[in-house]
């Protein structure tokens, strides 16, 4: 009989051998999104890695016969349970369980993997990709070999598209792995190069000060609208003007950031959102339009419906020049609808970070 889960790693005097920590940022302002997909074949994406990040912590114990080997603690959901990768199918959190199955846990070890994020689920900010990147990066430390950032991103992508059979571009995983401001050239899906955009501190800080992330209060869920758009784009081919319009906004955003031209960056975001609407009008929801109208009234220079768009999710705003005007804008947005929530964001100078320590038997 196996030891009960609640008692597994909390026995008196039992300490982990190692504690592996990892964090990975989420993604906003993904100009050129939709072009990093199998049906687009090639694409260009500009995006920005930001905190709040996803956090993973793995406690590593010597395995003792009769106990569970793998415990998963999805802290945001308050769920802590045993995972059995050798058994077919998924239980409560398929993405987490599939990532563990993909990476494996070496014999002789038992682990507890804790996953936590301040970002709301279904925020359209690549949170699931960040979860997979952080978890795969941490699990990789259990083995002698170490994956590169690119390999971590591609492994996370493979978990979603190969194991879980989900639709997924590659930009979210790459942004989470690399962090910072990125220009991603998808030369043949899913193969891509990442060019990180380095700017002066003044440009970096001003961009960070102006950015705002507004959660619409409802989780984004892929729907028949997305299926319809995918079917249309597949039939039109990768060179359709509707995809070309999106690719152009990634180049415009890249050039604007290098120049420190926030008006031009904002215009690229506006044009991208308009291009999303041309894919299907429902990709820019009524809630998103309400946010955009408020942003316009307060002199914001740009707005971008994050991710693929549709109901729920979030909107990135590139705010006005004056901070107090931006704060007035945010207060109006949150007052207009109690579901709307400003999520403070900070630009991530780093992507995936992994570190570990030996657990001290005295004093922790």
Quick one: CATH class? Alpha Beta
Number of helices: 10
Task: State which percent range the strand residues make up.
Answer: 25-35%
Main beta sheet: 9 strands, mixed
Strand elements, count: 13
Q: Percent helix among the residues? A: 25-40%
How would the global form be characterised?
A: globular
The Cα radius of gyration reads 21 Å
Tell me the number of structural domains. 1
Task: Tell me what the structure shows.
This protein is an alpha+beta fold and 364 residues long. It has helices at residues 94-103, 127-140, 149-163, 171-178, 201-210, 224-236, 241-259, 262-279, 286-297, 323-336, and strands at 18-31, 43-62, 70-74, 79-82, 109-117, 181-188, 191-196, 211-215, 302-305, 314-318, 341-343, 346-347, 353-358. It is built from ten helices and 13 strands. The strands form two sheets. Strands 1, 2, 3, 4, 5, 6, 7, 12 and 13 form a nine-stranded mixed sheet that branches. Strands 9-10-8-11 form a four-stranded antiparallel sheet. β9 (302-305) and β10 (314-318) form a beta hairpin. It starts with 17 loop residues before the first strand and ends in a 6-residue tail after the last strand.
């Amino acid at each position: 009989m196996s030891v009960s889960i609640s008692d597994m790693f909390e026995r008196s005097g039992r300490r982990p051998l190692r504690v592996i920590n990892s964090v990975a940022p989420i993604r906003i302002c993904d100009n050129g999104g939709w072009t990093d997909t199998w049906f687009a074949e090639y694409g260009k994406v500009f995006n920005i890695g930001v905190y709040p990040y996803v956090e993973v912590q793995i406690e590593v114990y010597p395995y003792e016969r009769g106990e569970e080997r793998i415990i998963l603690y999805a802290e945001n959901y308050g769920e802590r349970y045993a995972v059995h990768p050798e058994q077919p199918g998924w239980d409560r959190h398929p993405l987490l369980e599939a990532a563990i199955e993909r990476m494996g846990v070496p014999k002789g070890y038992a682990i507890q993997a804790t996953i936590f994020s301040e970002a709301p689920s279904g925020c359209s900010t690549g949170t699931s990709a960040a979860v997979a990147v952080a978890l795969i990066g941490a699990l990789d430390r259990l083995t002698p070999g170490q994956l590169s950032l690119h390999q971590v991103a591609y492994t996370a992508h493979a978990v979603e598209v190969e194991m879980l059979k989900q639709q997924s571009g590659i930009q979210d995983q790459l942004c989470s792995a690399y962090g910072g401001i990125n220009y991603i050239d998808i030369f043949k899906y899913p193969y891509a190069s990442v060019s990180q955009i380095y700017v002066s501190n003044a440009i970096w800080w001003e961009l960070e000060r102006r950015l705002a992330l507004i959660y619409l209060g409802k989780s984004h869920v892929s729907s028949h609208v997305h299926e319809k758009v995918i079917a249309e784009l597949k039939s039109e081919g990768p060179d359709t003007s509707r995809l070309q319009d999106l690719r152009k906004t990634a180049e415009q955003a890249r050039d604007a950031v290098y120049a420190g031209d926030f008006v031009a960056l904002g215009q690229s975001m506006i044009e991208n959102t308009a291009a999303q609407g041309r894919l299907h009008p429902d990709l820019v929801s009524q809630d998103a339009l309400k946010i955009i109208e408020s942003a316009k009234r307060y002199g914001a220079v740009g707005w971008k419906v994050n991710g693929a768009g549709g109901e729920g999710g979030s909107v990135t705003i590139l705010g006005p020049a004056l901070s107090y005007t931006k704060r007035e804008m945010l207060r109006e947005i949150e007052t207009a609808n109690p579901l709307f929530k400003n999520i403070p964001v900070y630009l991530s100078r780093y992507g995936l970070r992994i570190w570990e320590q030996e657990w001290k038997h005295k004093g922790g």
